[in-house]
Specification:
This protein has 114 residues and is of the alpha+beta class. The chain is built from three helices and five strands; from the N terminus they run αβββαβαβ. The radius of gyration is 14 Å and the shape is globular. Bound molecules: adenosine monophosphate (AMP) and zinc ion (ZN). Adenosine monophosphate binds next to loops.
């Protein structure tokens, strides 16, 4: 997808601080972290919003969460706790229209989120 910053990271056109990559998923440090650990986990395929998912995407979405779990275990915060968030559209504050799972850790997370 042209003009998508996350697609440009997948293609290597724009650099990112990569922490994990496989055939379907890419994860990198958020450029504007909201917690001591803030990793963005994306599918390599362009999907604009959560509203654009269909049944065929279910395994791919599962892989985003499995990547979050793997990183949490590897980086040692799985037991202490962490939060995963996927924002959808304007009221949730989605700013990049290529779906992504935020992985946040390293501090107490407030509830409900703001
Ligand atoms: P959202 O607001 O849920 O769409 O999240 C988009 C996230 O992508 C934000 O947390 C941004 O800080 C992050 N982000 C945007 N551009 C970059 C970039 N070039 N490298 C890393 N993270 C980015
Ligand atoms: Zn994209």
């Amino acid at each position: 997808m042209e003009n998508c910053i996350f697609c440009s990271m997948v293609s290597g056109e724009i650099a990112c601080d990569k922490v994990f990559e496989d055939d379907e998923v890419l994860a990198f440090h958020d450029i504007n972290p909201k917690a001591p650990v803030h990793i963005v986990i994306i599918p390599q395929a362009h999907i604009a919003t959560l509203n654009d998912l269909d049944e065929a995407h279910a395994p791919l979405v599962g892989k985003l969460f499995l990547a979050a779990q793997k990183l949490a275990k590897e980086q040692g915060f799985a037991d202490a706790g962490y939060r995963t968030v996927m924002n959808c559209n304007r009221l949730a504050g989605q700013s990049v229209f290529h779906i992504h799972l935020h992985l946040l850790a390293g501090r107490l997370m407030g509830w409900p989120p703001g």
